[in-house]
Amino acid sequence: MSTRKKNMPYTSMLRGVSTLLGDTSEELEPIAESKELSSLSIATIQLPRHQPRRYFDAEKLRQLTESIKVHGILEPLLVRTLDNGKHELVAGERRYRAAQAAGLTEVPVIVKQFTDREAWQVALVENLQREDLNPLEETEGMLSLLSLRLEIGTEDVIQRLYRMQNELKGKVTQNVLGSSEGKLIQTIFSEVGSIGWESFVSSRLPLLRMPKEILEAVQQGEIAYTKAQIIARIKDDDRRSAILQDAIAGNWSLMEIKKAISSSDNEQSKSIKVTTSGRITQVMKLLQQTKVWQDPKKLKRLEKLLLDLEALTESQEV
User: Residue range 69-88: average pLDDT?
Assistant: First the structure.
């Protein structure tokens, strides 16, 4: 059964966050009965300096804006109180942006008291439970969450995960899985519930090896992950970069990108054929000019090459 956000009430998500924060004793009240549920002027809510979500689908954001104009915000934003008396958004940035676009002056909120560390962790978990989360965003979000909980850098997190995988496969004998870090990693993946750690290592971490310009384009919201994934398969650096830039500039659909790649492949294939034909002609001329067959050592190599060429031409005979 899916544990995505659409299948769980907002309080259930917060209970999961409470567990991740190490507090399993507190039971959060239902929203309808919560004393923390109120409304705030949207002008008094500020975005945090660090946000886990980078990419917002423009069309989906427009649709949400239209829905808010008609129905209002059905799910409150989660905010925390700052020392200056203002409030900072913890979860619900898409609703916050859509509310601004819809012209709302007040929004429903749940006010919680979070430290900087807790607020960042809640934002990461909420982001990981989104319905439209793409694999790259999921990878970066999980690594940030693990880095925060383990109090180590993301590169160190990646190393721990690969060591756990190697131990599971019997490649190493270190007790990584049974260590306190290994157990905590497994607990965090279990609590988030979107993917197991083994699948994460085998199917998500390799995404970080995509070409740098592809990763940056996705991270900056210039192109959707599904489109970038297709472009990343192009081996030639110049061709890949050119198609990426054209796709971004022209806002190409997935079909247009595939068509451009196919057309580019055909052109490259023709170029290779022309180049090969020219090389054969050039080599034949050089053979005639240099008369390499007069050298006994080179003659043996030449005879072998001729046999290979004859075999190739015979295979083409009808």
Answer: 90
Looking at domain 1-132, does it have CATH number 3.40.50.300?
A: no
Report yes or no: 56 and 98 within 8 Å, Cβ to Cβ.
no
Contact assessment for residue 211 and residue 238, using Cβ atoms and an 8 Å cutoff: no
What number of other Cβ atoms are within 10 A of residue 226's Cβ?
12
Three-state DSSP class for 86?
coil
Token reading at 105: 């002056």
The position carrying tokens 């384009």 is: 217
Burial state string for 16-29 with b = 16 or more CB within 10 A and e = fewer than 16: bbbbbbeeeeeebe
One-letter amino acid at 139 equals T
**Strand 45-46 and strand 87-91: pairing?**
parallel
Tell which phi-psi region holds residue 22, choosing left (phi > 0), alpha (psi between -120 and 50) or beta: left
Mean pLDDT, rounded, for 174-198: 89
Every domain of the chain and the residues it spans: 1-132, 134-209, 212-315
Q: Which residues are catalytic?
A: 93
Give tens-digit pLDDT for 200-235: 999 899 889 899 999 888 887 788 888 988 999 888
Helices marked H in the chain = 10-20, 58-71, 93-102, 116-128, 135-150, 154-168, 180-192, 197-199, 212-219, 225-231, 237-250, 254-290, 296-315
Question: For residue 110, how far is the Cα from the chain centroid?
Answer: 29
Q: pLDDT band at 264, cuts 50/70/90?
A: low
pTM, rounded to two decimals: 0.64
Torsions phi, psi for 173 (to 5 deg): -105, 5
